[in-house]
């Protein structure tokens, strides 16, 4: 038990400190931004802002603002809490999937920046499949649509995987290019071929019965449960199957993997396809919740997956927790904007700061004098690994 | 003069040096003194505390207690630059040289001789380097690029670097680890010359016969304590080994006679290219019979690495054939070879043999992770993996707090035992050993050698590739000498002479013209005329 706690701390210390530092630096930015709108300096504004953020995300309130005075007052409104938590989970679920799309890649020593494009392709495939099966019974239509989304994403992950395995093209370069390719080609396709008449903007047909089933509340959807099951399955895959052992070995020491008779090429293609499938599924969830595929599908979940994976230390459970944090911030941001009058973009700033501190891991380790062992394969190493190094 | 001071104060004296690290006392009241002109050998197993002691001397670590005296005066050494200023220099096992720079540039790095505030005085530096070389009997062209020199000459450049900085006390950390027997003899001549000129030398090694040959005095350290001090005349290898390990060690494993059967691994006309496309293995043919050990001797870099990689499926040969138990396996991958009964202990355990960040238990199944009983259905069978790990730790004497610690936390010897445990426990017909005891202490070497011989006696065909000539000679039933990609001789192991094999390794033939013996390699530095 003690060893488990030690290992957990070794894993979680840097992410937790990164979050705290990002919130502290974010509070300075909140104060600074308030100077532009208000006449006086409000040092308590960050507290109010974070409190309303927390309340928006969980329904939990710990202070009471009356007039100018602020008093500590713990309260919870069950109705509000259940609504807030459901929204948080709904926002978190696609982030978990895009987090896995990056995190599983880290395990194999691959940096999949292509989550963004894989989300688009997955969403597009799901949108088309959903529209085609719109009149079928819900279980059939929905299943076909999400499978199509996962396959679309997998295909879009397979391409950089095959390029890397057989030509040595670095996945960071190829996935960035594929992101742009996906965005522009799909816009073109929706505008020219799959556009339906009627709506004022270009979009595909309604997905009808394939729409994301809502199980409870306003947005407590089936996707949340599918995501939770996938987190568990991914953990089993990575840590309890021979295939997961192969993936981790290739990531930690490709030479040893070859020595042990594994095929790094096969594993690179397989892993990037799997990553793509996760991202594609995330795109499918988004599109099936929306009900159609709009030509301009601006979503940031693909790139947010990188933050989620780094924050979650590429561990399925860590990714789940990180996604809930980021999802909570997304769910709570509107409340913060209303109460504290802080621009909603501060959430993206804080998210960026977290990433910045995570990337400065060795600095943080030095600051807290953590003797905790580095937990490997080191995701940051994968991110910063030189292009000269070959995996094959 | 006080009464305690002897006629000549020791050049260096370390008194009661104690250094504790969390959980371990690395140095426990160590006393060491080195006289002017003395070659003092420091002997000890890996982790005995030699490096800590030398780091303290070099200013890289501060002792918790104890003092350092130079010429009888107590000094405080604040870091390597202070140590160098006081005349202490260290020649590391891994050379700290820039291959693309000239000898002179390497020597000047950090000790630049300036003509004025802006420019180096290259001519003066060259003059001093040539003069130093002449004085100590190894003249060298200062303008030659270090990368073109042989390892033996690179080491001399390291020594020159120290002398250029006016070092009086030289610490040499395992200086012979990378040298051929001939090069070792040459470097010993240099060291003796240095000692005659009044330099004090601390010689760190675990090769007992070398220590006996070169040292004036030998101090043995075990678990952070000095356990004995000997004069070479009053001791022998067995005595030193016993002191070092703390028990009697069988230095040369009793291998008995081999009873070879038919050929198991047959290599015919094998040609292999290295990463740069150079043909480093050139038409090599040999066979290894069941129940025998075929040793491959050779100076590192003569094609052994590529040969091993080709045999184990890590590299595709360009031509030739390999058969394993009468089946053609040329070009087969590692997986297929393993399934046909090949086990392989790789030379670079950090690169190939282990995944350092993984727990020991995972490393113990690295090549068997997908075989019964370590898989059950689709899942890993953690119970069986743990049980095997416990068994391996006990049977192969792997010293570790548990099977769950990362392989990186184990000492080199225990890491190697883990690789050996894994590879030897498979059902095997052919065993390929590449540098099986590199960097290990005598206790671990003894253990691994015993295991090798017992595998042979169980009928395995064993190919042993090692840069340690002693190891090849002690274990092999037959010895193949590799030189520039070819097998230049195949001699009977038990009767082979060290000198003969050494010559074959260095020159590719049994005799060499006398003028070539002490000269640098053909593309090395031309001796500078006076």
Overview of this protein structure:
The complex is a heterodimer of chains A (392) and B (530). Chain A is 70% helix and 5% strand. Chain A is mostly helical. Chain A has one domain: ABC transporter involved in vitamin B12 uptake, BtuC. A two-stranded antiparallel sheet of chain A has the order 1-2. In chain A, helix 2 (45-58) crosses helix 12 (316-340). Chain A is globular, with a radius of gyration of 22 Å. Mean pLDDT of chain A is 88; it is low at 372-377 and 386-392. Chain B has 530 residues and is α/β, with parallel strands linked by helices. Chain B folds into three domains: 12-245, P-loop containing nucleotide triphosphate hydrolases (Rossmann fold, 3-Layer(aba) Sandwich), CATH 3.40.50; 264-341 and 428-517, Rossmann fold, CATH 3.40.50.300; 351-426, no CATH class. Chain B is 31% helix and 24% strand. Chain B contains 17 helices and 22 strands. In chain B, the strands form five sheets. Chain B has a six-stranded mixed β-sheet, with helices on both faces. Chain B has a six-stranded mixed β-sheet with strand order 16-19-20-13-21-22, sandwiched between helices. Chain B has a four-stranded antiparallel β-sheet with strand order 2-1-4-5, covered by helices on one side. In chain B, helix 14 (412-424) runs parallel beside helix 15 (442-457). Chain B is globular and about 70 Å long. In chain B, 45% of the residues are buried. Residues 1-6 and 513-530 of chain B have low confidence and may be disordered. The chains are: A mainly alpha (392), B alpha/beta (530). Chains A and B meet through helix 8 and helix 9 of A and helix 10, helix 11 and strand 18 of B.
């Amino acid at each position: 038990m003690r060893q488990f706690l030690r290992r957990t701390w070794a894993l979680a210390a840097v992410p937790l400190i990164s979050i705290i530092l990002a919130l502290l630096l974010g509070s300075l930015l909140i104060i600074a931004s308030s100077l532009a709108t208000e006449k006086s300096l409000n040092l308590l504004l960050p507290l109010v802002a974070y409190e309303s953020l927390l309340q928006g995300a969980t329904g939990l309130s710990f202070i009471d603002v009356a007039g100018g005075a602020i008093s500590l007052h713990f309260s919870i409104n069950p109705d509000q809490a259940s609504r807030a938590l459901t929204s948080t989970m709904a926002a978190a679920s696609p982030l978990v999937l895009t987090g896995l799309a990056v995190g599983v890649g880290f395990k194999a020593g691959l940096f999949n920046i292509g989550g963004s494009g894989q989300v688009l392709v997955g969403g597009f495939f799901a949108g088309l499949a959903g529209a085609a099966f719109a009149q079928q019974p819900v279980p059939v239509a929905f299943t076909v649509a999400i499978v199509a989304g996962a396959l679309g994403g997998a295909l879009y992950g397979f391409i950089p995987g095959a390029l890397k395995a057989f030509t040595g093209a670095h996945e960071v370069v190829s996935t960035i290019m594929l992101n742009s390719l996906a965005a522009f080609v799909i816009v073109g396709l929706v505008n020219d071929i799959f556009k339906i008449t009627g709506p004022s903007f270009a979009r595909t047909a309604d997905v009808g019965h394939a729409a994301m089933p809502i199980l409870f509340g306003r947005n407590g959807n089936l996707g949340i449960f599918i995501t939770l099951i996938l987190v568990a399955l991914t953990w089993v895959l990575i840590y309890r199957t021979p295939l997961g052992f192969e993936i981790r070995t290739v990531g930690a020491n490709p030479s040893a993997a070859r020595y042990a008779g594994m095929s790094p090429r096969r594993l690179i293609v397989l892993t990037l396809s799997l990553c793509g499938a996760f991202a594609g599924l995330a795109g499918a969830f988004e599109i099936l919740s929306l009900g159609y595929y709009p030509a301009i599908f601006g979503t940031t979940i693909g790139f947010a997956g990188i933050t989620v994976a780094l924050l979650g230390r590429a561990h399925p459970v860590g990714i789940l927790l990180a996604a809930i944090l980021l999802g909570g911030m997304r769910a709570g941001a509107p409340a913060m904007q209303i109460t504290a009058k802080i621009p909603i973009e501060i959430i993206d700033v804080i998210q960026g700061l977290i990433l910045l501190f995570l990337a400065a891991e060795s600095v943080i380790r030095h600051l807290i004098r953590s003797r905790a062992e580095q937990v490997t394969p080191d995701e940051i190493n994968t991110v910063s690994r030189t292009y000269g190094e070959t995996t094959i | 003069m006080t009464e305690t001071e002897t006629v000549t104060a020791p050049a260096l004296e370390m008194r009661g040096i104690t250094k504790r690290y969390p959980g371990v006392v690395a140095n426990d009241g160590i006393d060491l003194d080195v006289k002017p002109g003395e070659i003092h050998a420091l002997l000890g197993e890996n982790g005995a505390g030699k490096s800590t002691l030398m780091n303290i001397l070099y200013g890289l670590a501060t002792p918790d207690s104890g003092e350092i005296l130079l010429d009888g005066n107590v000094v405080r050494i604040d870091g390597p630059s202070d140590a160098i200023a006081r005349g202490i220099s260290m020649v590391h096992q891994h050379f700290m040289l820039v291959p693309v720079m000239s000898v002179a540039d390497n020597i000047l790095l950090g000790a630049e001789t300036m003509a004025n505030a802006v420019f180096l005085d290259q001519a003066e530096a060259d003059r001093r380097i040539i003069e130093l070389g002449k004085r100590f009997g190894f003249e060298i062209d200062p303008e030659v690029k270090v990368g073109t020199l042989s390892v033996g000459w690179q080491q001399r450049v390291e020594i020159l670097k120290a002398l250029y900085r006016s070092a009086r006390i030289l610490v040499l950390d395992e200086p012979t680890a990378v040298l051929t027997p001939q090069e070792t003899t040459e470097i010993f001549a240099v060291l003796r010359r240095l000692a005659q000129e009044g330099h004090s030398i601390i010689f760190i090694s675990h090769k007992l016969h070398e220590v006996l040959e070169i040292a004036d005095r030998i101090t043995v350290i075990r678990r952070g304590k000095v356990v004995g001090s000997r004069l070479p005349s009053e001791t022998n290898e067995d005595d030193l080994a016993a002191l070092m390990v703390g028990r009697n060690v069988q230095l040369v494993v009793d291998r008995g006679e081999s009873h070879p059967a038919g050929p198991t691994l047959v290599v015919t006309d094998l040609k292999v290219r290295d990463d740069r496309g150079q043909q480093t293995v050139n038409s090599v043919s040999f066979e290894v019979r069941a129940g025998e050990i075929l040793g491959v001797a050779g100076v590192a870099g003569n094609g052994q690495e590529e040969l091993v990689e080709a045999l184990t499926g890590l590299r595709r040969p360009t031509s030739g054939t390999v058969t394993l138990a009468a089946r053609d396996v040329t070009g087969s991958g590692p997986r297929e070879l393993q399934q046909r009964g090949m086990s392989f202990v790789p030379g670079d355990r950090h690169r190939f043999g282990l995944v350092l960040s993984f727990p020991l238990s995972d490393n113990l199944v690295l090549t068997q992770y997908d075989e019964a009983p370590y898989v059950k259905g689709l899942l890993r069978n953690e119970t069986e993996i743990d049980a095997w790990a416990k068994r391996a730790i006990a049977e192969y004497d792997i010293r570790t707090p548990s099977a769950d610690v990362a392989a990186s936390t184990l000492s080199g010897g225990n890491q190697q035992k883990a690789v050996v445990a894994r590879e030897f426990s498979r059902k095997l017909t052919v065993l390929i050993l590449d540098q099986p005891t590199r960097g290990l202490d005598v206790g671990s070497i003894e253990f691994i050698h015993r295991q090798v011989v017992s595998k042979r006696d169980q009928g395995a065909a064993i190919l042993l590739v090692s840069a340690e000539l002693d190891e090849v000679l002690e274990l092999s039933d037959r010895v193949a000498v590799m030189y520039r990609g070819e097998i230049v001789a195949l001699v009977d192991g038990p009767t082979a002479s060290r000198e003969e094999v050494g010559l074959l390794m260095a020159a590719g033939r049994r005799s060499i013209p006398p003028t070539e013996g002490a000269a640098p390699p053909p593309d090395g530095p031309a001796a500078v005329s006076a």
